[in-house]
Amino acid sequence: ERKKYNLNMDMCEVHRVELFKKYPFQYWESEVYAPEQLNFNQLSFDGYKLRWRNQKLYICEYLPDGQTKDDKIVKNNPMGFAMMHNQNLLIDPTFKKKCFEVIQMIALVLYAKRPSYLKQSNSKLLTILLFPIGFVFFLRRKRQYKRLT
After folding, report:
1. Which of 24, 63, 72, 123 is most buried per CB count within 10 Å?
2. Residue 138 DSSP SS3
3. What is the pTM for the complete model shown?
C-alpha cells in the first residue's frame, strides 16, 4: 500500500503485541539489525492489513549520530538488508525496480561473503543476468564502506 498511496516516508507503525510474538525480528548470526520491513512485509504476505491514518502520533528529531545518518547500519548488517531486497522482489512488479533490488542484493551478499544466499533469490534469472552489474556495485560499496568508521 505504501507504493499505491505514495507513502514513501518515515512513518510511525503501531502493531499488536501478539503479532510481534508471532513474527519475531529476523537476524543473521554476527549481525544485530535487520530492517523492520522484513517483518511488516511478512505480515502482509500472510494476509494482515495495515491501516494508514493522516494523524500525528508523535513528533521526534533525528539524532545526529543516529542509525539513518550514514550507511554504517547497512555496512554492519549486510545480510539483513540483502534479505530485504530479496523480499522486495515479491512486492514491486516493475522490471526497473526488480533490477534495482537484484543488484543491491548481489552487492550486499558479496560484501557479506555469503554468495550461497543468491540461490534463495526470488528472481533467479535476473540474479544470473545482473550478476556482473551487482559485482560492480559490490566493488563500489566496498570502497564506500572503507571510508566509514
Report:
1. 123
2. helix
3. 0.84
